[in-house]
Amino acid sequence: VANEGGKHWTVNEVRALIRIWSDKNIQQQLEGTVRNKRIFEQVAARLQKFGIDRDWKQCRTKYKNLKHEYKSVKSAQDSGNTTKSMKFFNELDAILGHCTMEQASKSDNDESERPPEWAEAKSEKDSIG
Length: 129
Fold this sequence. Notes:
Layout: H1 11-21, H2 24-31, H3 37-49, H4 56-78, H5 89-108, H6 116-128
Helix pairs in contact: 3-4, 4-5
Protein name: ZSC29 protein
Region (Disordered): 100-129
Domain Myb/SANT-like DNA-binding: 7-95
């Protein structure tokens, strides 16, 4: 799928984008806002230092696409489908894994996040009553 710029991202361009995205400072800014044009202008400026010519819109579009693809692969894997994967999954998992896991455990009350003693204590209580 061609993105807004019409020019496909090369593997090196995506790696550079992910490297910038993995910067804690950038992540915090992205997590804290919806109006993120300024952040992606910074990202584009940093890509320029690597000799990569992308504007902020292209960076934002690629970021959104990568994030979307990551989430669909992650949820497929969580439901047991191990055949679905993507090129930069591990790199993105290192960045996104922490925040998506937090959100997941809040929404579906994931037992695996809790110490095993809790689950055992809970099940004993249930069987007594």
